[in-house]
Design goal:
D-Maltodextrin-Binding Protein, domain 2; 5-stranded mixed beta sheet; single chain; 35% helix; 2 domains; 7-stranded mixed beta sheet; alpha/beta; 310 residues
């Protein structure tokens, strides 16, 4: 029996797609986790259809290889919570785990349970999903240095475009004392909101448990912008917020699709079959070969900023 197939299966009650592999008598599911922007869950019906099409296509393409590896089912779960994603990145219980770039880098170690198989395709234009620093239109914050000591809403500290890159940029930004501070700065406070729409709404209203929200770290292009606008009853262009700064994004890798290192070593024929299938897909995501050097560059940028924060 394959070592992979002998691993304990995760609970199936959370699966968004679960189908048996034809003619297999195994009870071991092939576990896939796909990361979805939390604000896209309002389009759940369309998402479920895309997941169904993806799962059925995989079943048609790779049934023989999955059966040979002693898998009996395909189980696909949608993840949309950063804390849960960080946990699963550490536990390594999925055969394929799609995740945020910063979450992948946060879990890297000498004995990493995963390897990058492919990247989610992303546009290379500077305007395609850059990391944005937003303030209210009437804000007194006029330059990056003014953010130090403020209360900032972020999607999450490990959301690459919604927290991690902006914090890295702010960590190396000098600032001058404000009048009356005399060098006694308040520490910069971050509140993780879990979604771009929540961060936007908190920024607009200033709502917080303490110290009003004064800025937000969210992507420059996000479904959260349109969702927040819809909740407020305005057009997206009518949101009373503006960009203070963006982080350059031309070198950024796409969201990685991680493959279990154990699966790769035990079942290379299956992994090759999966890769061939995935690069032809358009739902729920398009995939491309990984530019590993870009992950190395990104890891360096975030690590340097991390040292500055210490």
């Amino acid at each position: 029996m394959s070592l992979i197939a002998s691993l304990p299966a995760i609970g199936t009650e959370r699966a968004d797609y679960y189908r048996q592999i034809p003619d297999s008598t195994s009870v071991n599911p092939f576990n896939i986790a796909l990361w979805v922007d939390p604000d896209l869950l309002v389009y759940n019906q369309q998402l479920q259809e895309k997941i169904r099409r993806f799962g059925n296509g995989l079943l048609d393409e790779a049934s023989a290889e999955l059966k040979a590896a002693n898998f009996g089912f395909i189980s696909i779960e949608v993840l949309n919570d950063y804390e849960r994603l960080l946990e699963e990145r550490k536990n390594g219980i999925f055969e394929l785990l799609h995740c945020d770039q910063a979450v992948y880098l946060a879990g890297r170690s000498q004995f990493d349970l995963y390897e990058v198989l492919l990247e989610q395709y992303r546009e290379e234009s500077p305007s395609a999903g850059a990391a944005g620093i937003w303030v209210r239109e009437d804000s007194e914050i006029k330059e990056l240095g003014d953010l130090v000591g403020r209360h900032i809403a972020a999607v999450h500290s490990y959301s690459l475009l919604g927290g991690a890159l902006q914090q890295a940029l702010l960590a190396v930004t000098p600032r001058s004392p404000r009048p009356g501070e005399e060098g006694n700065y308040k520490p910069t406070k971050y509140t993780n909101c879990g979604s771009a729409s929540d961060a936007i709404l908190r920024l607009i209203t200033g709502v917080a448990t303490e110290r009003p929200i004064e800025a937000a770290f969210i992507p420059t292009s996000s479904p959260g912008l349109s969702l927040a606008a819809r909740l407020l009853g305005v057009d997206e262009s009518g949101l009373p917020i503006e960009l203070l700064e963006t982080h350059p994004n031309t070198r950024l890798p796409g969201k990685p699709l991680l493959v279990s290192g154990l699966l790769k070593s035990e079942e290379p024929a299956l992994v090759n079959c999966l890769k061939t299938f995935l690069v032809r897909q358009r739902v729920p995501y398009k995939w491309q070969n990984s530019g590993k050097e870009r992950f190395v560059s990104l890891e360096h940028d975030l690590a340097v900023a991390g040292k500055e924060r210490e």
